Amino acid sequence: MDELLSNPAVQGGLAPLLAGLIAAAILFPVRLAGLAAAAGFFTAAYLTGSLGFEPLTATRKIFLLALAAPAAGVIADLAFKPTRAAGVVLGVLGGAASVWVFWSLLQQRPPAEAMLYGGGVALFVLWLVAFMMPLHDQPVRAGAAGLGLGLGAGIGAVLSATLVLGLIGIGLAAGCGGFLLLAMALGKRVSGGATLALSVGVAAAFLAAGAMLLAKMPWYALAVLALVPVAVRLPVPERAPAWGQAIVASIYTLAVAGGACWLAWLASRGAAA
To answer: Which of 125, 176, 178, 242 has a CA that sits 20 to 30 A from residue 154's CA?
Structure first.
């Protein structure tokens, strides 16, 4: 069993997929199926042996925010309906939190470079959170965006020699995949809500930013990855069943995520040469 659980394909793929699917199936009657994304994320973090909160490193600060995001989403889903401004407000808060998360890493750079990277990361986080939140009432699109963002951040991190963050990113994608499977089967009865949208936006943004600052994932790969929430808004066949819409939306997001991974691969080859 230990050998099975130490397999990267199980840690980042199979186990988070099952965790996401089970969480979505159990919680969808109370409209909290969006917790599938967090289930996949933390299953991967646990199986890779990286889950912990002391000492409070940059990676562990990411875990704290990845825990706070679905908690805030649950409150939003149960207590009130998110407004149009909610995404921008939460995005600004996430951007500000990025300075706290990555402060120890930014301090190691020259002041001008630290300001450039810090501002870029804050803008990246703001963008992803702000563009994911309006998808709270579009479960198929939100799930497909989570699939693309998780795989883009995860595979990009692996290519940039950040295996643990990579497996956790892939785990996030797998958790969203579990949510999508249920949504494809049950259609509009499954709701992702702010729980899914906020979980995906926060976790994917900080994982990708961490891969850039901790390793060698190029900044322009993040710029491409930021287009995933835009691509998922492209038209899908409205009269098609949920599984058909999910496939089309996922093709959009995976194409963009694939572009980000390709850029990360090119950068890794250049660094090796």
So the answer is: 242
